[in-house]
Amino acid sequence: MSRTRTALALGMAAAAALTVASATESSAAPSPLAGSTTVTPAGHAFKAALTGKATLKAGSVTVTCAVSVSTGSVPAAPGNHNAAGAVSSPITPPTYSSCTSSMPGVTPTVTTSGAWAVSMQNGSPVTATMTVPAGGLVVHTSGLATCTVTAAPGGAASVPGSWANGAPSSLTFSNASVPVTVTGGFGCPTSATSSTFNAVYLVSDTTDPAQQITVTP
What we know:
Blueprint (H helix, E strand, L loop, with lengths): L2 H26 L8 E4 L4 E6 L3 E5 L2 E13 L7 E2 L4 E5 L3 E7 L4 E7 L3 E6 L4 E7 L4 E7 L3 E5 L5 E8 L4 E16 L9 E12 L8 E3 L1
Antiparallel strand pairs: 1-5, 1-16, 2-4, 2-15, 3-4, 3-15, 4-7, 6-9, 8-11, 9-10, 10-13, 11-12, 12-14, 13-14, 14-15
């Protein structure tokens, strides 16, 4: 056999081997399926109230708020159970007040709007995802620096967190990344494209305060 034919045969054999190996690897590693999730009590209203302080850091600037509240409802049965994934609930846009800035002489104001939601996925640990709608959170500062920070500027953003059952249950966001755009003049972190969000909310059942909002399989 000529050298050309030998090289061609070897190349075809190698390509076939790579194709088989790639197909075998793909079929051997399917995507894991999400487990079942149930949020109870079905149909009950809840309130998520900040405990401690919430911080939103963009670049070198940190905005700290002492008060934040949101409300929502667990879906009515059977919508409070998902055999293969998370259970989602719409929530009111969280309010943020009593806010301060790490920049001296600067006062921040936080406004929220749009269709917010939170979803829970049972597991170890239970994970939670808060959905911020496009432009759904805006921080405006006044004083020595006038800046505008807009969260989720390009579309709805998912903010990862965790859930812990308890009395009351808690929803925690720890160094969660949120996409932002920053506009303004001197002192504004205009190069920042993401911010870091930290907050812990205590979630109470407002339909029946004697019960707890709980996530189980």
